């Protein structure tokens, strides 16, 4: 890695307040806690009312489920379902799972409502700026390179087709490249929640990366609480505390995943309209929604839009949104009326 680079990634935007100390050790009253790795990040499952003798079997089942999701959604795996679709240069509909169809359908809907700010076809630009499977750039991309990559993007070129025999995905632009990293963590979190319900477990906190979902109460019989971190990569400090009340939450931030090049901080959040990393003062967008997948989709679009448009969209769509903006003397925050219902007074 070049000396003029600083790269910070794979860190959650949340602090789990389920009885664990700073060293991530679980005291006896914290319930059953399991952890692992998936999708280039970490997963965590905290359970109440589940005995330790189930841990080994549950851990194995969880990892198998997430490994399966990774094989379907990961652009970092050349043999994944989405990678095969990206490598395909034809226009014939390609069969995909119902899960894949649901993820892309929701992404297209949110993309439309954000005027294209949330764009799962932005992969060529993500790769160009060094945040995808391709090598990171050693110099700033030229405008010509950006224009070439932008020409390979566009939600209007991607279609989900539902047939009696199953779901299909179609593109009318041969080089279209779908990147589901903006919604993969949310989907996997929801998938974990469905697994817990299938196993008869109804009190849990599940998370993959920056997406979290809860049900029921923790091992102390109290609501699961999640703390939104202050927008810094140097400390674990609480910005706000929320009780999810059975909902999902996800945060998109420009302060966790970046590098420095030629004296400039390059954010992983790419604006599809310009083909460049965002440069506005909105540094964090948190969304609470019925599912973690939906929250994960909205937060990226809001981050791209910036403060003014994000506020207007949150109010228009009645979204539960919490924004953090950088100011000269620190940070300022804003929350929608719907978000206030989840805030825990500290």
What are the main properties of this structure?
single chain; 346 residues; alpha+beta; T-fold; eight-stranded antiparallel sheet; three-stranded antiparallel sheet; 18 strands
Structure description:
With 346 residues, the protein is an alpha+beta fold. The protein has a domain at 81-181: ApbE-like superfamily (T-fold, Orthogonal Bundle), CATH 1.10.3980.10. It has nine helices and 18 strands. An eight-stranded antiparallel β-sheet has the order 2-3-7-8-11-16-17-18. A three-stranded antiparallel β-sheet has the order 1-9-10, with no helix packed on it. Strands 4-6-5 form a three-stranded antiparallel β-sheet, covered by helices on one side. A hairpin with a 4-residue loop joins strand 14 and strand 15. The longest helix has 19 residues, at 55-73. The relative contact order is 0.15. Residues 1-12 and 16-29 have low confidence and may be disordered.
The assigned CATH architecture of the domain at 81-181 is Orthogonal Bundle
The level-1 CATH class of the domain at 81-181 = Mainly Alpha
Chain-averaged pLDDT? 86
Radius of gyration: 20 Å
List low-pLDDT spans.
1-12, 16-29
The end-to-end span amounts to: 42 Å
Shape: globular
CATH topology of the domain at 81-181: T-fold
Percentage of residues in helical conformation: 25-40%
How many β strands by DSSP? 18
Strand order of the largest sheet: 2-3-7-8-11-16-17-18
- How does the helix and strand content classify structurally? alpha+beta
Number of helices: 9
What is the H level of CATH, i.e. the homologous superfamily of the domain at 81-181?
Answer: ApbE-like superfamily
Helix and strand sequence: EEEHHEHHHEEHEEEEEEEEEEHHEEH
Q: What can be said about the biggest beta sheet? A: 8 strands, antiparallel
Beta-strand percentage range:
25-35%
């Amino acid at each position: 890695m070049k000396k003029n680079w600083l790269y910070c990634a794979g860190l959650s935007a949340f602090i789990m307040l389920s009885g664990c100390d700073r060293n991530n050790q679980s005291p006896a009253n914290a319930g059953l806690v399991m952890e692992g790795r998936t999708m280039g990040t970490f997963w965590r499952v905290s359970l109440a009312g589940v005995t330790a003798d189930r841990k080994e079997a549950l851990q194995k089942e969880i990892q198998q489920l997430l490994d399966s999701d990774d094989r379907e959604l990961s652009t970092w795996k050349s043999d994944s379902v989405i990678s095969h679709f990206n490598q395909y240069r034809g226009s014939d509909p390609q069969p995909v799972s119902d899960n894949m169809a649901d993820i892309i359908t929701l992404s297209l809907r949110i993309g439309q409502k954000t005027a294209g700010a949330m764009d799962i076809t932005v992969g060529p630009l993500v790769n160009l700026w060094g945040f995808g499977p391709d090598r990171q750039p050693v110099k700033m991309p030229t405008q010509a390179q950006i224009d070439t990559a932008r020409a390979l993007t566009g939600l209007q070129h991607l279609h989900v087709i539902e047939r009696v025999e199953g779901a299909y995905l179609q593109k009318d632009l041969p080089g279209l490249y779908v990147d589901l990293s903006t919604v993969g963590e949310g989907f996997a979190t929801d998938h974990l929640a469905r697994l817990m319900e299938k196993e008869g477990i109804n009190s849990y906190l599940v998370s993959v990366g920056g997406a979290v979902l809860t049900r029921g109460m923790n091992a102390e019989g109290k609501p699961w609480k999640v703390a939104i971190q202050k927008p810094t990569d140097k400390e674990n400090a609480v910005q706000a505390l929320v009780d999810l009340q059975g909902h999902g939450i996800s945060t998109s931030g420009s302060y966790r995943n970046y590098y420095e090049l030629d004296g400039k901080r390059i954010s992983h959040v790419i604006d599809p309209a310009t083909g460049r990393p965002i440069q506005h003062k909105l540094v964090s967008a948190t969304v609470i929604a019925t599912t973690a997948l939906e929250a994960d989709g909205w937060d990226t679009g809001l981050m791209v839009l910036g403060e003014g448009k994000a506020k207007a969209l949150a109010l228009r769509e009645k979204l539960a949104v919490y924004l953090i903006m950088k100011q000269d003397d620190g940070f300022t925050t804003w929350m929608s009326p719907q978000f206030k219902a989840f805030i825990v007074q500290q």
